[in-house]
Amino acid sequence: MKHLLALLAMSILAGCAQGDAQQTNKPNVSEWAVIDTGKITNELRELAKKQNPYPDGVRENAYDIVTESRKVQATIRGLEQESQKGCEVDLSKKPKQPLLIDSYKEIKAYDKSCVEGQLNASSYKDQLDTLKNKLEALNNEKELNAKHRRKLDDAAKNYLPQIVKTYAGDQFSLVLDRHANVVYSSTGILIDVTEALSNHLSENPPTIDIQ
To answer: What is the model's pTM?
Structure first.
């Protein structure tokens, strides 16, 4: 009987020792970490952009597209105003013919048929057709730019939790945005892992697909 009890006690002690060893080998997940999500999201976005470039013929800088579009619109406006010369109508005489009212800077009236006739003249028509086609192409490029930009933004935003979990999930029990207000922490430990994660992304760039 004494021999049996001794064996049982040894078995229990061995089990406890094994449990302690397993606990020792487990990563410490009691700490809380903070991360600058803006910085990491921007880095993910740049990575996504590198792996998924803008479509052919679509510039990355939307400002350049908008600036060129405004210049084309201004040129069209200038040609249309030029075509109105010689077609002015005195509103005080109560004209009966169809009119075009221009209130761009001041209210003016023009004989519609006169203006349309001049616009259809080859000196104006060819230029306007070319400019309007150019404007349509620029508007299409602007839409494609915005669509691709949204895809990159969404991909980076959606991938952020995944990369944080992969990198920090086994090390920390909770990862907060750097700007989160922590009212109380029992350990008082908040580890900023932004730079470490940034370096991890540089050394181990993930593949980010955009939909």
So the answer is: 0.67
